[in-house]
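Query structure, 309 tokens:
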């Protein structure tokens, strides 16, 4: 194998385990953390790099994003010849399925209320709900959304799925495109957002769309904060149309201390942790794809930059 260079440029990430993993996978490559003025590399492994990185590394052949979402990366000017490759699952799909299922089940089974009662020393029962009254709508049926929809179907919730193109999945009632968005929303009592953030999907969770959900609906946003219009969510919770929300992602992260979400007891907050990037799984996937690219083979997970995901 000819000598080649891999540059690592990830903001707020401990580089050491990544460098060790990449060096073990490519013993003959030069694998280094990018510094301004670093020599030109063939491949880059990135998360939230500065624009200066791409301005200096204009010769890159491929850019591997160590996350599934590429919205932040696509805001930068990228070398036009470089393919952008995102993570596909790499251990995130099962995490997302467990996170969303726990959120749906916690809501469906009134587990927050039972927790509060237990803390107050009360032995109380709530009326069991009808599963058939709890259709869960999953927006985005990609690598993560499909896994989530199938996991929810295992618990026998009626599951609706919405994607750009039609995607038939066993146990999932499929909807596609803007023409079927209204019917999808009106058929859903819980809404799970797993869309990529693109010009078509920014602010998609707003007063118009959220008010089309069934009365008492619950919202789970695990995709990106900019999908959701915060003030619209709050006012629909306060009006009683929505019963609450589970939010893992926010317009500004960390969520600022004075944000009203912190003070709304019907909103549960987690710190962008629903599906974490796993170093070992990610390096295994990235290194296989690097080897395939070196051999001139096609790889999956190449981002369509014009489409935005
Ligand atoms: P994919 O690219 O595999 O799937 C995207 C899905 O969204 C596809 O089904 C696609 O439809 C659909 N879609 C895209 N645009 C539209 C549109 N305009 N209207 C309707 N449907 C649309 O993405 P992943 O499943 O891998 O990831 C989804 C997102 O999850 C990421 O972009 C990221 O933002 C977020 N994420 C969050 C994490 C967290 O910890 N909170 C962790 C990992 C990811 P089609 O199939 O027709 O193309
Ligand atoms: C991702 C994320 O996009 O962690 O992978 O949000």
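Result returned for the query:
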């Amino acid at each position: 194998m000819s000598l080649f260079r891999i540059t690592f440029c990830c903001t707020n990430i401990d580089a050491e385990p990544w460098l060790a993993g990449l060096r073990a996978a490519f013993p003959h490559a030069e694998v280094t953390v990018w510094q301004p003025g670093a020599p030109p590399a063939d491949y880059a492994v990135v998360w939230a790099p500065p624009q200066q990185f791409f301005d200096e590394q204009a010769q890159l052949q491929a850019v591997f994003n160590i996350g599934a979402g590429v919205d932040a990366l696509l805001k930068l000017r990228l070398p036009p010849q470089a393919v952008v490759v995102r993570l596909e699952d790499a251990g995130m799909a099962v995490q997302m399925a467990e996170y969303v299922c726990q959120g749906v089940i916690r809501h469906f089974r009134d587990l927050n209320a039972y927790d509060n009662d237990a803390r107050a020393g009360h032995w109380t029962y709530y009326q069991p709900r009808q599963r058939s009254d709890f259709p869960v709508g999953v927006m985005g049926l990609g690598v993560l959304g499909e896994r989530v929809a199938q996991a929810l179907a295992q618990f026998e919730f009626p599951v609706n799925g919405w994607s750009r193109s039609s995607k038939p999945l066993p146990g999932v009632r499929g909807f596609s495109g803007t023409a079927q968005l209204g019917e999808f929303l009106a058929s859903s009592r819980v809404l799970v957002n797993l869309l990529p953030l693109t010009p078509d999907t920014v602010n998609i969770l707003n007063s118009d769309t959220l008010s089309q959900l069934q009365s008492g609906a619950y919202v789970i946003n695990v995709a990106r904060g900019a999908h959701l219009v915060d003030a619209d969510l709050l006012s629909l919770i306060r009006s009683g149309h929505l019963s609450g929300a589970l939010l893992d992602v926010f317009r500004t992260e960390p969520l600022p201390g004075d944000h009203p979400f912190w003070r709304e007891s019907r909103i549960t907050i987690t710190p962008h942790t629903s599906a974490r990037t796993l170093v070992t799984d990610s390096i295994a996937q990235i290194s296989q794809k690097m080897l395939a690219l070196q051999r001139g083979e096609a790889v999956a997970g190449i981002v369509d930059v014009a489409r935005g995901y």
